[in-house]
């Protein structure tokens, strides 16, 4: 017998003995040599020779029994089973066709029985992500719904183990995105900091997360909650009112809170509304804001914006317009509902707005489809600074893409009317509308005036651009601009811009290239800021407004028309 055959027989006996051992208390994983034996047997079976299929057939029954026995002992043993089960799963994926083994039930069993208990183990978490990346193509082809179904658990192990798993997770992220997981994945990525806070709460109240299934921890709380409800019914007091020994921090999250259960789930249940106004989440956010941040929370606050970047890149590359259209209203809602960390909020909001504008640039037809949520957000521009910024970006997109293009005249008219209303509301008020008191400090007044001026500039620009795209709106746009130009606004830049736009809309040949569509329209391409002088003979109806383009006031200092500069035919 050769040395190689001796090694083969030794490894096979090791696996066979472990598969037959009836001592469940210890479990197969208690033998450190077993994982090495499984890996060596897989290497032998991968050799391309005539005996490889025979070797696979001899190994398979023992590995299958070992897998079943390991899964059965997960809840009865303290030793980790993750690495051993991953090694056996690799064999099932590599040689499943040879031995006619369907790996799908085995994968589901591993995730639900083992990974749900060992996701907090950094070694198991890293090995799981490596396993998913190495087998990504096989999983997407043979089991396309596996990763999208269990993306909450994969997010959980990534969030808990921090920056070490950021790069491995980014390699796996494209496999998590499918039509069924695309929308639910977005709020899950946004809520990674709150997920970490919830997991830390579970660890403090129930011990180490390694080896404990969070679902069972939640169930174990059911008798306590039932007793608390009975006590409240008979005495009229709650646990929180009795004082007791429970600290304020330990009561910030209630395991019965629907949001708590939603955050800690392991499987994708579809898009579920997360109630940010509920008392439970309000307590979580307030406690997180007032207490020092853990190292784990600091790491995820830095990682989450980069994960959103990757998600948006995948969305713009692979998602269809229907999914993007459904995502944008969720994005608009979540822009004001973020974890209360200033740096995190700034990074995430900037990415949300950039993605929204990129989506409109890719598909301007989304604007008329999202007409109602856009109008609603324009109406809420006064509520907070982040909603004001969202309204500004929406104004820009509506004007830049002409409300969806020349074929969407009804939607463009409704959007135009919404912009008109926003304009007139601001003209009739000396402030942006943040409901501030009359006696406020000078810095706040200065900020408010600056915000109002910025909003007015965006609105009149959008109105002028919409009228340039849709000529039937020009009379109403001219009236609106005249009102702005004649208004007593303290910021002269607003009225000056209104004067400029009034001059431009009287010069169609110049206004169209400057403020018109940047995309092809009816077979012609317009380049913003560039005048096509060959069309000057039939589009320009007055003298060149050099005094406007040069930002000079007063009448024009020239006395020639455009026809003098054009070659006669």
UniProtKB/TrEMBL annotation:
Gene3D superfamilies, sorted: Leucine-rich Repeat Variant (1.25.10.10)
Pfam family, one: TPR_AP5Z1_C
The AP-5 complex subunit zeta-1 C-terminal TPR domain, residue ranges: 279-519
Top-level taxonomic group: Eukaryota
Domain AP-5 complex subunit zeta-1 ARM repeats: 30-156
Annotated protein name in UniProt: AP-5 complex subunit zeta-1
Organism: Gossypium mustelinum (Cotton)
């Amino acid at each position: 017998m050769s040395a190689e055959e001796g090694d083969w027989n030794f490894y096979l006996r090791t696996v066979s003995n472990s598969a037959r051992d009836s001592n469940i208390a210890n479990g197969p994983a208690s033998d450190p040599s077993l994982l090495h034996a499984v890996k060596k047997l897989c290497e032998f079976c991968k050799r391309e020779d005539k005996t490889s299929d025979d070797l696979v057939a001899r190994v398979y029954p023992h590995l299958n029994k070992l897998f079943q026995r390991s899964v059965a002992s997960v809840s009865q043993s303290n030793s980790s089973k993750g690495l051993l089960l991953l090694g056996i799963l690799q064999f099932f994926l590599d040689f499943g066709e040879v031995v006619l083994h369907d790996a799908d039930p085995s994968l589901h069993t591993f995730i639900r029985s083992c990974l749900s208990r060992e996701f907090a183990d950094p070694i198991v978490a890293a090995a799981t992500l490596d396993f998913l990346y190495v087998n990504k193509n096989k999983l997407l082809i043979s089991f396309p719904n596996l990763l999208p179904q269990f993306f909450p658990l994969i997010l959980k192990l990534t969030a808990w183990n921090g920056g070490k798993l950021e790069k491995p997770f980014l390699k796996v992220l494209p496999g998590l995105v499918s039509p069924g997981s695309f929308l639910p994945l977005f709020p899950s990525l946004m809520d990674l900091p709150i997920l970490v806070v919830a997991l830390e709460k579970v660890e403090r109240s129930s011990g180490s997360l390694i080896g404990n299934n969070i679902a069972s921890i939640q169930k174990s709380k059911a008798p306590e909650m039932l007793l608390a409800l009975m006590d409240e019914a008979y005495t009229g007091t709650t646990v929180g009112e009795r004082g007791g020994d429970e600290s304020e921090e330990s009561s910030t999250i209630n395991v019965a809170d629907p949001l708590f259960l939603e955050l800690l789930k392991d499987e994708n249940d579809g898009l579920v509304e997360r109630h940010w106004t509920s008392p439970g989440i309000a307590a979580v956010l307030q406690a997180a804001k007032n207490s020092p941040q853990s190292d784990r929370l600091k790491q995820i606050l830095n990682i989450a914006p980069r994960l959103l970047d990757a998600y948006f890149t995948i969305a713009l590359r692979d998602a269809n317009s229907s999914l993007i259209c459904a995502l944008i209203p969720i994005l608009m809602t979540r822009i004001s509902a973020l974890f209360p960390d200033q740096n995190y909020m700034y990074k995430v909001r900037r990415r949300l707005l950039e993605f929204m504008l990129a989506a409109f640039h890719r598909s301007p037809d989304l604007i008329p489809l999202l007409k109602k949520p856009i109008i609603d957000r324009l109406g809420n521009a006064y509520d907070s600074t982040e909603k004001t910024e969202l309204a500004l970006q929406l104004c820009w997109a509506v004007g830049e893409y002409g409300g969806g293009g020349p074929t969407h005249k009804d939607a463009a008219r409704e959007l135009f009317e919404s912009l008109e209303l926003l304009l007139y509301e601001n003209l009739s008020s000396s402030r942006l509308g943040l409901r501030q008191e009359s006696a406020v400090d000078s810095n706040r007044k200065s900020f408010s005036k600056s915000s109002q001026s910025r909003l007015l500039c965006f609105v009149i620009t959008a109105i002028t651009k919409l009228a340039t795209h849709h000529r039937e709106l020009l009379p109403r746009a001219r009236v609106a601009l005249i009102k702005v130009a004649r208004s007593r606004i303290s910021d002269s830049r607003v009225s000056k811009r209104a004067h400029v736009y009034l001059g431009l809309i009287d010069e169609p040949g110049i206004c169209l290239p400057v403020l018109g569509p940047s995309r092809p329209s009816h077979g012609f391409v317009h380049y913003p800021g560039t005048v096509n002088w060959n069309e000057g003979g039939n589009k320009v109806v007055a003298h060149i407004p050099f005094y406007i383009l040069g930002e000079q006031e007063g009448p024009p200092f020239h006395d020639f028309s455009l026809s003098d500069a054009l070659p006669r035919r």
